[in-house]
């Protein structure tokens, strides 16, 4: 499906060559590894409730992105327009949606400076990342516009939810993750489909589903057992052993990645706000 109107060719024709390396550097700020790193650091540094809210928002946003990509499975612009290597499908833009969710959630979670100023700075950064995808020829303009629109609506809704009870964002993330898994199964095969016996699912949906469920379960455990460290240990040690055993013994990529994401998200929930508490 051709979603372009010649915007990539026009941009690449008129943009000076020295700007292409700049666009490539900017686009890296929206890479998955960078966004995960930002989320991990923020979860550890922020006050616990804000950290939990941010984690839930990020995981839920990832689930929405994975589910949409699995359902729509629309391709990218022609490869001759690509100035960098890329994979997966093209609609909506993962860099646009992901960067908007992560950096937007961070701006909403911080207390330094004025809220409007933080959001304005983040908006400028996210727009730059989004436009770099068009300049580099890996997304049509509509891909990034839709990604930004979805992220903006999602952040607005989750911000209202997080103000009242931050832990609810993890329940929403788990729900969105499971819906994404269902989409990855129902609309497959996708370019990222992996099978576990007779069940085949999209990898990204399985990962976000595992992360959402793992984080929500960990929040439930910590909420109920926070005052009882012995009981917490009794719960956590067997869970850690089961998770480690699954990761070690199975040869299924789908199971390893989804369980690994769940374990990682659960650990972040347990560690949330640890640096903030240490400062206090």
pLDDT below 50 for ≥5 consecutive residues: which ranges? none
Rg estimate, integer Å: 20 Å
Instruction: Order the strands across the largest sheet as they lie in space.
Output: 1-2
Total strands: 2
Order of helices and strands: HHHHHHHHEEHHHH
Estimate nothing, just give the exact number of structural domains.
Answer: 1
Major sheet characteristics: 2 strands, antiparallel
Shape, per Cα inertia axes: globular
Q: In oligomeric terms, what are we looking at? A: single chain
Secondary-structure-based class equals: mainly alpha
**Residue-averaged pLDDT, rounded?**
83
- Beta-strand content estimate: under 5%
Helix content: over 70%
Number of helices: 12
Q: What's the end-to-end separation, in Å?
A: 55 Å
Brief account:
The chain is mainly α.
What does this structure look like?
- The structure is a single chain.
- This protein is mainly α and 280 residues long.
- The protein has one domain (7-279).
- The protein is 73% helix and 3% strand.
- It is built from twelve helices and two strands; from the N terminus they run H-H-H-H-H-H-H-H-E-E-H-H-H-H.
- Strands 1-2 form a two-stranded antiparallel sheet.
- The longest helix has 25 residues, at 48-72.
- The N and C termini lie far apart (55 Å).
- 43% of the residues are buried.
- The model has no long low-confidence stretch (mean pLDDT 83).
